[in-house]
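Hi, can you check this record?
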Amino acid sequence: MEILRFLRLPDLVRGLISGLLSLIIILTPNSMFTTETAEAEYMLTGDSVFSDTAGEAWTVGFAREVLTPDDITDDKYYIAGYNTNNPALDVLDDMNAKAVYLDDNTGRGGVVICAIDSVGISRADINDIRKKVIESGEIPNLKSINICATHSHSAIDTQGLWGSAFYSDGKNENFMNSLKEKTADAIIASYKARKNGKLYFGTAEAEGLQTDTRTPIDYDATITRIRFEPADGSDDTYMVNFACHAECLGARTTVVSADFPTYMEKEIVEQTGGANVVFINGAIGGLITCEKLDDVLRNFELGLEYVKEFGKDVGEVVMSVSNETELDPVINIKSKTVSVVCDNTALLLVRLFGVLNNDIQKTGTTEISIITEVSYMELGSRQIGVYMIPGELYPELESGNFLSAGEAANGVEADYKSLSEMARCEHNFVLGLCNDELGYIIPENDFMLHEWLPYFNIPVDSFGRKHYEETNSVGPKTAETLLEAMDELIISTKK
């Protein structure tokens, strides 16, 4: 290997790949790129300045639409999350779009939080959904629409990366069109189902349910429960935030499923007699997953029982919350467009081949950036702060518990202002995979690429640790770009 380095062969290979990509970018027609003006047409930016004024009561509505197609065995649908060329053969439980409409009755407008059972949704598709909602004219005075993925690894491919091969689009066009229509319908229906009532939040610790497969071992074990209690005595609505990959069924499953959130919901419904339940994922980079996943990967048949067991366990923790606090009727939210340089050669190629459909723009002759967004929301009188992140955030970017220079792959300290340093509310959490999916968001001091084939091969650092997640990351500057944008956004709400 040393003689190959002496001959600079790794540099030559990287140079050839870079040169080929540059040529492809130059030859790519302008129709493939978008502008910030075009992509921002249906992005509602929220409140320019946050207000402390409270309304008389909360108004909240919930609705769901089943997304699972009826022709699973007749048409070709690929399961996303692990392997390419894994067609769905059956349905274990349904994929859903679940929408919650929230309004504090101050006259400043309502907010939508919508969760789709899927591995990830591009911002381009989310803007298509926003367009349908906005142009319907059914929801007046709407100031923000936020759509996130639950990150199920047994749902139908919604990104395109899990088709018959790496370079082929795994999305089913009819299914994607139906998903957009039904998600828009769920959002509109949530507004029409709105009722007045009270909103509460509480927390509980999910001990022994998660594991972190990459150093530093750092994850948020707190389950946050936001509960709406309608004044008319009808069913409560629960929004549950928990940081964990939804992949209890493992890599070899052939059945469509929303994974453990389905069985979490079943437990909550059983204990409440009929609550509405929405699962929203958290900071899951790193990789934060279910504790017994290794057992399932060795014996995939265990997954069919484990997904139910794990979901029930999560549901029991949700229902164990005993520290509820009523939230004042105040909701503030603000969004900001962000341009993230895409350094990942593999992702760029599949985007230019039409597999992925994230919004992209040229930021130089041969440089491409992904246009995405971050959002920040506060509920109550500085009671809850929510960081809406367009991907799978490494938990240390939230907590600040970074690897030291001596522990990190690149031998330097992390130089970031973490989300915890931006906090100004009583309780704060990350809403992950929100309004886009950029893959893993990794601290730069531990971001390592393969010497010969960056983003294609998995490198091993001097500590013997594999750096798989980098192959599914936009690039080493992603974390810095998003955190700086979030900090600027939060600061701007004070003006």
